[in-house]
Amino acid sequence: QVQLVESGGGLVQAGGSLRLSCAASGRGFSSYAMGWIRQAPGKEREFVAAISWSGGNTYYADSVKGRFTISRDNAKNTVYLQMNSLKPEDTAVYYCAASSRYSVYVGDMDYWGKGTLVTVSS
Question: What single-letter DSSP state applies at residue 43?
C-alpha cells in the first residue's frame, strides 16, 4: 500500500513556473512507476507525464512536451513535476499516481493522491 500526498499547487501567471511534489509513504515506492495526471473543469483526466521506477524512462503528453519535466528521488520517496511556461489551459487539479507497471493509461494506476490545484491566469 502506498499513500501519496501532492503539494506545490497554486496561482501563477501565464509564462510562470511551478514545481509540484508528491511525497509517498508506505512500502516499495522505488518499485513503482509514477505518473502525473490532471483534470480540468468539465474535462476528462489527462495523463500528463510518467516516469519508470528507475527514472530511466519518461513520457510526456504532447500538450506539455518541452515545458514540463518529471523526476523522482527514490531516497526521498518523492516524485516531482517541474512546470515551466505555464498556459491558462494548464489550469487543472493535478494528481500523483503510482502503478506497479510502467504505463501511461489512467486506468492502470493503482494508487492516487488527492490532488493539488494549479491555476494559471492570463
Answer: S
